[in-house]
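FORM 12-B: Structure-to-Sequence Request
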């Protein structure tokens, strides 16, 4: 059976008819004065899910997280956790903990004192605290740094202390607001896998806020894409990428070519699209459209082949010239300018060190793609 992307095969509660969501936002609106930061938003998150809120700056991601943590109350609507309405419950009484972007570590305390802080406040016994702190240090591999203060640690180590402190109290839900924002790219990527392992080991529900789509794609079971306080789509990373529900989502996640047009003819799930600039496109993914409908044909660059020779038997074939080339090492992105002036992006994987069909600027080039390579968007 074909599947979209690699999935945790045994974990997809959102597809199980009887499964009950663990966290529910029900028609939640949040206004600050006359500004609406979150607009009538509904969202369900399942127990043990790694859920990402993804969106541009100011779209309301942090506000959602803060309402779940109890630092803000919704203006309208309900937030339920395990069936309980959270309204009026103060942050410290919610089974939820938040890890902030700034980490907010206590500078005068050692690593172990930082981790122990919340446990002490909860009145846990000294021996239990010691045991728990020991477990946490092991979990985040910081045993040898237990006596250091935050300023004696690297950014990545500080991030792990904050994480250990946030999970030390064994919250049911961990909220992470841009948790890796302060780390450089390499460390960020490593830490993403550590976070995923930690979430699996502890069996917690994670809700993460990020504006970094690669981060959301790497870590999350599902992603909610937000825009101006509204949910645009909730789906697995592969669904968001391969089956975006709208032009907004297609354009927001990853690189894509979008050709506006009309459905000229349809036969079952196949259709011919009359695109702007006189382009004709044959697609096999037109089940939900009608003849005459305004659509956008969206296709990712890696699904387009670019070659100097005219390929035989291609479903879709267009001729143009190489307009720009970006060599990224692992792949090369070609911008091919078609006869009608439209520029199409096509990428090719550099699977070998030398290229068999080297294309250069201004070369004639053919782009081709299969009928099932793109999607049709009606919204
Ligand atoms: P970023 O990625 O930049 O953190 P975000 O998606 O997390 O953005 P929020 O912090 O949720 O965005 O803010 C959503 C909108 O609500 C923004 O336009 C912000 O200016 C506004 N906002 C947030 N908190 C308040 C507040 N206390 N008073 C007034 N406006 C606020």
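FORM 12-B RESPONSE
SEQUENCE OUT:
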């Amino acid at each position: 059976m074909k599947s979209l992307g690699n999935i945790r095969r045994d974990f997809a509660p959102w597809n199980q008819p009887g499964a009950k969501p663990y966290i529910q936002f029900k028609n939640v609106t949040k206004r600050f004065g006359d500004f609406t930061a979150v607009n009538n938003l509904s969202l369900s998150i399942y127990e043990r899910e790694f859920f990402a809120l993804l969106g541009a700056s100011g779209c309301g991601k942090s506000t959602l997280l803060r309402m779940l943590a109890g630092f803000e109350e919704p203006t309208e609507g309900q937030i339920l956790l395990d069936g309980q309405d959270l309204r009026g419950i103060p942050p410290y009484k919610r089974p939820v903990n938040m890890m902030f972007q700034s980490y907010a570590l206590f500078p005068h305390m050692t690593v172990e004192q930082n981790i122990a802080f919340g446990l002490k406040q909860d009145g846990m016994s000294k021996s239990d605290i010691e045991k728990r702190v020991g477990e946490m240090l092991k979990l985040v591999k910081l045993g040898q740094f237990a006596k250091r203060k935050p300023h004696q640690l690297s950014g990545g180590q500080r991030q792990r202390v904050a994480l250990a402190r946030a999970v030390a109290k064994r919250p049911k839900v961990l909220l992470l607001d841009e948790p890796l924002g302060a780390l450089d790219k390499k460390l960020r990527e490593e830490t993403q896998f550590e976070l995923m392992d930690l979430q699996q080991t502890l069996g917690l529900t994670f809700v993460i806020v990020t504006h970094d789509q690669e981060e959301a794609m790497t870590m999350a079971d599902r992603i909610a894409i937000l825009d101006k306080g509204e949910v645009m789509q909730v789906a697995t990373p592969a669904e968001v990428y391969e089956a975006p529900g709208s032009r907004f989502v297609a354009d927001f996640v990853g690189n894509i070519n979008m050709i506006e047009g009309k459905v000229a003819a349809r036969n079952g799930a196949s259709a011919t699209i009359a695109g702007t600039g006189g382009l004709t496109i044959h697609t096999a993914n037109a089940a939900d459209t009608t003849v005459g409908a305004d659509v956008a044909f969206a296709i990712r660059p890696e699904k387009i082949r670019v070659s100097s020779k005219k390929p035989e038997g291609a479903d879709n074939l267009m001729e143009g010239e190489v307009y720009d080339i970006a060599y990224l090492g692992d792949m090369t992105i070609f911008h091919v300018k078609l006869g009608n002036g439209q520029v199409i992006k096509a990428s090719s994987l550099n699977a070998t060190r030398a290229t068999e069909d080297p294309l250069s600027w201004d070369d004639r080039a053919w782009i081709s793609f299969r009928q099932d390579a793109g999607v049709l968007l009606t919204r």
